Amino acid sequence: MALVLDIEKIILTLVLIWCILICFEATGIHAQPGYPPKEEINALRDIAKELRKTDWNFTHNPCDNSTYWVTPKRSEMPLYNNTVYCNCNYNGGECHVTDIILKGQDLAGVLPPSLVKLPYLRNIDLFRNYLSGTIHPEWASTKLEYLSVGGNRLSGPIPKYLGNITTLIYMSLESNMFNGTVPAELGKLFNLVNLSGFLIFKF
Ligand SMILES: *[C@@H]1O[C@H](CO)[C@@H](O)[C@H](O)[C@H]1NC(C)=O
Ligand SMILES: *[C@@H]1O[C@H](CO)[C@@H](O)[C@H](O)[C@H]1NC(C)=O
Ligand SMILES: *[C@@H]1O[C@H](CO)[C@@H](O)[C@H](O)[C@H]1NC(C)=O
Ligand SMILES: *[C@@H]1O[C@H](CO)[C@@H](O)[C@H](O)[C@H]1NC(C)=O
Ligand SMILES: *[C@@H]1O[C@H](CO)[C@@H](O)[C@H](O)[C@H]1NC(C)=O
Ligand SMILES: *[C@@H]1O[C@H](CO)[C@@H](O)[C@H](O)[C@H]1NC(C)=O
């Protein structure tokens, strides 16, 4: 009998410990002040793999504006830009990744479908790399305002679903290997003022 009670006690204690762990995990849904949520850090890891970017240092907070995430200007490399910005003005100082600028870095992967896992991203600038493939349908559901993928090795038709990113203000696709015509669906981009550096006349 005593043994049975002991087992019950042990089980109760285990359940209690498990519950405490779960409760802490639940409060962990909100990131610490100054940090992005864990999901966004994992998204950055996925994006790095897709782009084949190897020098993001995940032992440092991507939102700390340190030189690990925001490389200062190099006069000998005027085009090079290696920047991740966050907005940390959310509830309780929580951060969200808003800008990824990776210009002139010789990245040889593909455009990252995982971009869609950064719901607060507004600016993606991958100008002048060696990225191949095309723009993924996943991007259609982003809220991007600035999209620059010019100067890469993208190919195939210019996707119609780019017309779904109605938040776009600026889009640069030039100097790639896209073929075919500019799809009529891009006419849905009513906020767009600048396509590949050409001003769009709005009526
Ligand atoms: C990343 O940061 C850690 C801690 O500052 C440092 O020890 C490490 O060398 C860095 N890694 C790279 C690849 O820069
Ligand atoms: C990093 O810079 C951004 C804007 O430039 C700012 O909103 C944010 O608070 C800064 N983060 C830290 C940790 O200083
Ligand atoms: C990189 O681009 C961002 C956004 O346009 C800009 O704020 C920053 O000054 C640039 N950094 C360098 C090193 O040119
Ligand atoms: C783009 O929007 C249209 C119309 O709302 C929808 O039918 C289509 O599935 C969307 N495309 C993508 C790739 O999300
Ligand atoms: C575009 O290029 C692909 C091969 O990359 C080819 O199959 C397709 O027919 C081309 N389309 C046009 C409109 O030229
Ligand atoms: C459009 O883009 C070009 C090249 O990036 C730039 O020089 C010009 O100022 C932009 N115009 C507007 C209205 O943003």
From TrEMBL:
Localization (cell): Membrane
Domain of life: Eukaryota
Signal sequence extent: 1-31
GO cellular component terms attached to this protein's record: membrane
Bilayer topology: Single-pass type I membrane protein
Keyword entries, A-Z: Signal
Record's protein name: Uncharacterized protein
Organism whose genome encodes this protein: Ilex paraguariensis (yerba mate)
